């Protein structure tokens, strides 16, 4: 009795270099159930192919679909694509050696609402996905049972009937074949169990390495944070000392201003006293020496003029001193205002001189290092700054950011509500096209028809 292999279900994963992983469908179900994780595909959207393979290692059906993986390497729990139903209801595809296959992809999907979860294979000469599938299945790295070639039929005229007592001998041969087949199946199950055990051990080792790397990164981050906190504390202390110095300078300026005002008042009083005394002496001299000769009067007048000249010189000196003190007051005031205005800028320049970099995170642009001379521009409009770094306009970046945060169709239905059909997320603002990448296929087609009309 010969055991014939049946049609086998398998799943193959594609990356930029071609087929990177293949497994039987039970292993794929273990990944979907969360029993097995794939850390090498963590936080990625992988392209995969569900295939049906017959006993001659020929592909009979293929479904090209996407599968998202979480940050820990586990499959997306919300993934739910009826692969078997799509394979049964799909249309005809190319001939991979056993006749035309049943093919389901984005451009040929029997269920319209599943179209966004499928992808189209490439048919270029250097990267033909159908040829890669055919050749990989022919290698039989999955260890599938292969159907042996059918022996040629013997002509009826050459057939001979054996003795009746030997008719029941093939029963023992059938039993032996059954035992061999059972033994072969048991060996296959043991190999599969051993393979799963090895994969689980490898996954556990990778998990330990990942935990160790995370612990190192956390320790490094804590050390950097502590160092930055210390630098911030030192800067705050310097800022406090600078503020105290500014307060002392302001107090000295106020004291000098008060002292100058008092000194000017004293000089004014002295000048008034001198003027009163001068008038009194002149009147007394005129009354006392009215009878004296003209020479004595002129001598007295000359003496008084000399005294007045001296007073004028003193008054001019007082005015000059007043002007100098006023200029000093204005200079000190300007120095105080300039020092108060540039204290914050000076602190930023000191931080930049010490190697501190100013960084900000924006989706699509990543972590941006902001130069000191660009800080004012960034504070004025952060979105415009991030859009300029992504080489797109501010409006396009703003609409892409809305799509990035909520990747769904923005078109309006007839009822006035938003379509909200889930879309593939565009990670780069430069590849984002308004009206195309933020709309589902139905509304993109409608917009094209309107444009064409």
Automatic annotation (TrEMBL):
Coiled coil segments of this chain: 214-345
Keyword set, alphabetical order: Coiled coil
Top-level division of the source organism's lineage: Bacteria
Protein name: Chromosome partitioning protein ParA
